[in-house]
Protein 1
Amino acid sequence: MSVRVQIIETPELVDVELAAIDKITQLQTALRHRTAEPRRWVGQMRRQAQAAAIRGSNSIEGFVVSLEDAAAVVAGATASEETVAVEAVRSYQRAMTYVLQAARDPYFEYSTGLLKVLHFITTEFDLGAHPGLIRPSDIFVVNATTGEAEYTGPDVELAAPLVDALCHHLNTATGEPLVDAAMAHLNLVKIHPFKDGNGRMSRILQTLVLTRSGTLVPEFASIEEYLGTNTLGYYNILRSVGGRHWTSDLDARDWIRYCLNAHHIQSTMLTRRIAEAEELWGILESAANDAGANDRSVAVLYDAIMGHRVRNSSYIESVKSTTGHQVGKQTATNDLRVLVTNGLLDPRGANRGAHYVASTKLLALRRARPAKAIADLFD
């Protein structure tokens, strides 16, 4: 007897949800226009947003790294130390690079094979996760504190057919991209088709759907930073939507509203950060000019004032990402020496641990603004 394969369906949107989507779309349209202009600070913002998203998504799974190390991974530089968490972040970053390329493919289509490739890239550092393979048995999500199963996924023989059904739906979906992406996330995490890495894969898939819609680049489209910062709320909404066992017959409205609210908050925060970055870049250009430093040094001053440690290697990467030019180690050393001599950077450590941090003089250039509360869309 055949078993009917049905994924979780999208509920019909009501006026308050459509109004929320319109508000988010306005924010994202403004973001797209602000970041489409060829300004050097945009590259730095994209790197920081990607680092924050990757760090946030991996922290949910217990792979915790500093924002500095996440930024180093994004830049292709060396982290402060090699750990399993750093390797997880590096694998995730490679998966997101794949997402960016796939989103540009005019012949793109969702498939189980695509998701298996993404899973392999994301989990290849851990062979115990069976990278690139659909799980070989039934699966349970266990509470680490109580040892009890909090959720039971669909039977193993349904895992692959359900993923196929999800991919077919995404290839033919014509709904609101924000909602389609949220439902893709919910379906994949509830199907739980892999032995491990299902949460990361669901968040990657959500970002892929958003990126394919063309609304924003992945760094600004995802809600992974928000989810990482609000992990408890994220877990709670996933628990409350769908119960303790797989079923396609559930009401996903609360999940959709949760994701829309996350997009609103994330887009509002990015809008504020971009306004600050634009202003700050001009201030740093003036400071570099007053110090007699090369204009290419502004990028590293921006990194330092944002709290990142600066190394010779990260200087080279920052210059390349903002100007497109490659400088050598000696040039980087000379440029950094000018910044130290003029009191903009302070040296720390020695030998392999040598790095630079923002000086008191440099930090004083950043104008602190009080954080403003962001209203919930569905209050």
Note: The two ends are 47 Å apart (CA to CA).
Protein 2
Amino acid sequence: MLKTLPKTHITIAAAATVVVTAAILMSPSSEVEAKRMSYSLDLNGNGVQQASPRDTRAPAEPDAGVANANDEHSPVAAQNETASVDVAEDTTPALQWQEHKIKSGNTLSSLFRDAGFDDGIMLKVIHGKGEANKLQRLYAGETIAFATDSEGNLQAIELKRSLLESLKIARTENGFEGETVVREPEARPAFATAIIDGSLYVAAREAGMSDRLAMELAGIFGWDIDFVYDVRKGDQFEVIYEELYLDGEMFDTGRILSARFVNRGKENIALLYTDSNGDSDYFAPDGGSMRKAFLRTPINARVSSPFNKQRRHPVLDVVRPHEGTDYAAPPGTPIKAAGHGRVHFAGWKGGYGRTVILSHGDNITTLYAHMSRLGKGIKNGTRVKQGETIGYVGSSGMVTGPHLHYEFHVNGVARNSRTVDLPDATPVPKSEIVRFRQFAEQQVAQFEVYRDGTQQLALARED
């Protein structure tokens, strides 16, 4: 019968047999195919997406006479899959990590020695490329980890400064190279509300807020409300703030997004607004700034001696005008600049002791006396920002105990800082007002949404 077939047909059949046989011999088994897919997942370092052993898209038409690499039965495809198996199985040896908690008194040299490395290796690391030299700045409480290969050679270092920030240094062909890696947390809005029965801080804590958030809340409204003397039982607040998450777990709180505080029946609302230039600040719903040009009080403490033109001096025992307000506080308590300005005087000033005087423009000056020490960098001519620490409470000068003596002068005349009208800070600019009003309307409406949700949750718990 073979004699009756044309020679060309016999040649084609023989060639097809060779191709099919080669494809069967060279194609990977299902076990090898599964192994290739699993290694692909490991190399990608992504446990979410599942790799597929085949491309399910329709292949393009191959050119005539050319084997199609997308055809799983072609020799080319078989060779490609065999090569991918070889690459996947060539895994990098795992590194061995050892971790050290940095304590007070530790040095970089001692930490390297504890990890088994001498100063020579340490110098190679800190003289490396990128940000490797930042390894020299260590702080107690941070964590440093060293990674070695199977032969004990140092391959990597990670200095964990916080949950969000790490300095990572790795060995490369050109020596060690470092970079700072900052993780971005996910911010989710949260809501807290409470009626004050005792103090703001107790009410905030019972509402699930941290002390830091309570202090920020007091700072936002602190230009209009004296939280030492003005807060009354029955006052209430509502706060929308950020909860920060990493890998699905909350680890901290962020900014206050909006807040409502009812003090003695008067409603105060503050909204955190970011303008088109990226600058953020708190504003009232009408666009007025929540900030004043000056803080009402430069320290969080009780008044021990008020402004009084007829006060008897506690040391000299004579009637001498008390042209300021005294705030009793423990030694070392930070003192804040009441407003933006320039240091007019910083040093010892007779009975005032260590004193700082700030000039703010518009013929306004503020004086801070009896400090234990001045703030870092505070000297004559230095510019300061509102809220910046300019010194610390002490008992220098003619005093009977530690406290801050604070004076507020307008045109050289002392004024009562607790009652003087303070100028407002800059409001929302006219070019932003339309955009701001739309934002403000949405933010104020959120209070009602959260309030209703909280009430429904409370009713559900009662049922």
Note: The two ends are 92 Å apart (CA to CA).
Protein 3
Amino acid sequence: MQFDLPVVWASIIGLGVFLYVVLDGFDLGIGLLFPFLEDKSDRQVMLNTVAPVWDGNETFLVLGGAGLYGAFPVAYSTLLPANYLPLILMVVGLIFRGAAFELRAKATRTQHAWDLAFMGGSALAAFCQGIVLGSLLQGIRIVDGQFAGGPFDWLSPFSVFCGMGVLVTYATLGCGWLIMKTDGELQRKMRMLMRPLAGVLLVMVGAVSLWTVVALPAVAHRWFGSGNLVWFLPVPVLVVACVIGIFRSVSREHEASPFLLTLALCFLGYSGLVISIWPNIVPPSLTIWEASSSPSSQLFSLVGTVIVLPIILVYSALQYKVFHGKVRAGDAGYHH
């Protein structure tokens, strides 16, 4: 049986990036929701809902980055120079957020400052991820397998708008997570926030999709000119259905549905992105086969991944199982 190794690796990296987006998405989202809640105990409960899992969620970012380096070195060596600044700022944001998580619990006088660091770090990391996504979608200039653009090619109205879209997505994910994990007054506040967030998210998804089709002829051809429209039509229909489902589940006071429907929205958006660029790993021209390392390198890396990835997935699932259920004020906080 003959494996197409680049396709296998593209699938693994795609899975890693998607898991990172949804898992780290909701805990970055909690940082974005902090400004809406002034109460100290509310903020502590919000942090406590993700305290056991936020570290593990970032594993998948490492998986995506390391996989890209090992399996698609050409893509790695063009994507990074094209996005150095936003990627560095994203890491800075994640560092600030991580430090705030740890130090906020210990701080008394400077707790407000760490709250600001947590909010700022979360917003910076999420916004920069959106900018990288936008720069990837609009295409990266490559000549002879090397990045040939300028240091600020990533900065465009489209990439900034994508950054704002990711902020809204993560805030909606965080809001859905908190509806599921909290109760009482905090849960009520989150239910009030969920509807406007889901509405804005729908507008953002529609705007990014339209902008992509209008501004990028290659993507427009992929969707409308290649006879594949029948396969793609369910995506926008399902997106609208998910948003309607979020509105209804919030008004009926369902616990888990808003979060699960937001996850489904993320999946639909992600599948739309993959459809738009496949089989390019760096649009507009670099395919997964051109960007690959040698088959022996990919096979060697795959052996390790096949052993390690199931372990990561199992311990991730276990931590959610162990820490399932509601988190309330007065529960044991975030301590070491």
Note: The first strand starts at residue 142 and ends at 143.
Protein 4
Amino acid sequence: MIALDTNVVLRLLIEDDSDQFNCVKRLMLKLDEDFEDAVITDNTLSEVVWVLDTTYKASKDEIIIALQALEGVLGFTIASPTRFHNALNAYITGKGDFADYLLREQAIEVGCRAVATFDKALLKEEGFFKP
């Protein structure tokens, strides 16, 4: 099993560099041949969303589609599928950033009752409070 860096995931999603995209495709084939998985961590997911938003100016809908597409990539495994789905569903309907919801899900998993934040949009949602 290997972990994927943000730039590898982005090359697959965006295909903006043909050499790097082809490298990722070869990696995917090799992983498939070797029955090996590539893990996409929470950090990588958060960075992918941030880069899509800030660098590529992707809309929220485009980001959601990209995140959903990652689940269908043969050989790619989301490190925590339940946390990912909960964060993605909250991102789809909420006002916060994907990373905020992923943080909340991580906090809940380790036993936290809530996340302290000054983000006004998040203060209206369950699991966040103003310190």
Note: The first helix runs from residue 6 to 14.
